[in-house]
Amino acid sequence: QQIENDDSLLYCGTTTGDILCVIMKTAILVSIGPPKKIFSMGVKSLCHITTGGQLQYLVGAGDGTLSIVKDRHSKFQQTKNCVKLNGSITSISLRGPGHQFFVGTSCSNIYRFNFAEFSCILLNTGHSSSINDIIFPHETADLFLTCGKEEIRVWHASSEKEMLRITVSNMTCNALDISRDGSIIISAWNDGRIRAHYPETGKLMYQIENAHNRGVTSIAFSADSNRIISGGGEGQVRVWRIEIGNTYTKDIFKTSLIESMKEHKGCVTQIKLFPNGIQCVSVSTDGTCIIWNLENYQRDAVIFANTLFQCACIYPDNCQIITSGTDRNVAYWEVTDGTQIRELEAAKSGSVNAMDISKDGKYFITGGGDHLIKVWLYEEGIVTHIGVGHGGSIKRVKISPDQTYMISVGEEGAILRWLSPFLTESSKST
């Protein structure tokens, strides 16, 4: 809706794609348009602007069309100035008299337009739906990757700008990882495929068909990047071998299944590799947490709990792991025999969906259904800091490799960057 400055007329955009002009006092319809081509998927946003003494309107449509139309005397006839943006137009805001204006879309894009040239630049962008995972490249704090519905994005941390977007239509990426040398991005998708992409261009490198029959829900790279460990919705943990078939071009890959480990009865929510590279841990919604030996592909230990496990973290010395889930507790476990050391109440409401531990093992962070980021001292088991900012359930949290900041992502599509409360001395000096 838009009201004239003297409050005499009301302009309305309709779901059928028309623009109406109504007298405020009498509610009489004065004009309706455009006469020929209406706006597809309805008029979502409307804003009047005066140029050279002539009244015109900026109209945003549901199909992403942004157009300039004439006034009511011309029955809102469309002009030649028309562009199509990514996503439905949700808002239009003028800067000053209108020489510049900003446009927001349902795909979480913000554009800045120059009215005279009717040209635009993408000012800001973000995820428009839930973010399922976040990772940092090995020993790199300048970049991080996120994934969600239909896409994987690579971000530059300091400038908070998107550097690369990988899109797979009508699919959802549940998890991702990157090789130690940063040359391959692997991702887990709900169509049962594992996809690998080049990080420079985003082009598909290879994909593993039918990796899991109920979607791939978790994934991890081995330290040598020759094996992929994946978890599926059916509960299986599978190990895949990746080989380069052509030693000259290095662009032909062979993938083969090494082992399928069938212990879990529910969805595998996360897989983490131990720093020693010999073991990995998988957690599942069936209430089991299993430590696997990646040399003989047998389980070394199994943990049972009355919860739906959501995440796990490995202590840097490989001796302990911590887990969390729908019981709202963080539990410490021995790796050797799976005995519980202690249990902490991590939230008053909602599940604890995400955890990460610092490289030195002194502290860890949690996030979940209570929308709060909490920083814990590992040995003492106490909360030192609480972060408030998310508008939805937190899906994943990560501490940067240099431990100077933390990243949290949520189901509302937000990416929040937090200053670490425990900066190292080297970080402070730089």
Present the secondary structure layout.
Blueprint (H helix, E strand, L loop, with lengths): L1 E2 L5 E5 L5 E5 L5 E5 L9 E9 L2 E8 L3 E5 L8 E7 L4 E7 L4 E6 L3 E6 L4 E7 L5 E5 L7 E14 L4 E18 L6 E5 L4 E4 L6 E5 L7 E6 L5 E6 L3 E9 L8 E10 L5 E6 L5 E6 L3 E6 L4 E7 L4 E6 L5 E6 L3 E6 L5 E6 L6 E6 L5 E6 L3 E6 L4 E7 L5 E6 L5 E6 L4 E5 L5 H5 L1
Antiparallel strand pairs: 1-2, 2-3, 3-4, 5-6, 6-7, 7-8, 9-10, 10-11, 11-12, 13-14, 14-15, 15-16, 16-17, 17-18, 19-20, 20-21, 21-22, 23-24, 24-25, 25-26, 27-28, 28-29, 29-30, 31-32, 32-33, 33-34, 35-36, 36-37
Keywords:
Methylamine Dehydrogenase, Chain H, 3 domains, 430 residues, 1 helix, mainly beta, four-stranded antiparallel sheet, elongated, six-stranded antiparallel sheet, single chain
Description:
This protein has 430 residues and is mainly beta. It folds into 3 domains: 124 residues, Methylamine Dehydrogenase, Chain H (7 Propeller); 133 residues, YVTN repeat-like/Quinoprotein amine dehydrogenase (Methylamine Dehydrogenase, Chain H, 7 Propeller), CATH 2.130.10; 125 residues, YVTN repeat-like/Quinoprotein amine dehydrogenase (Methylamine Dehydrogenase, Chain H). It is built from 1 helix and 37 strands. The strands form 9 sheets. It has a 6-stranded antiparallel sheet with strand order 13-14-15-16-17-18, with no helix packed on it. The protein starts with a strand and ends with a helix. The C terminus is likely disordered.
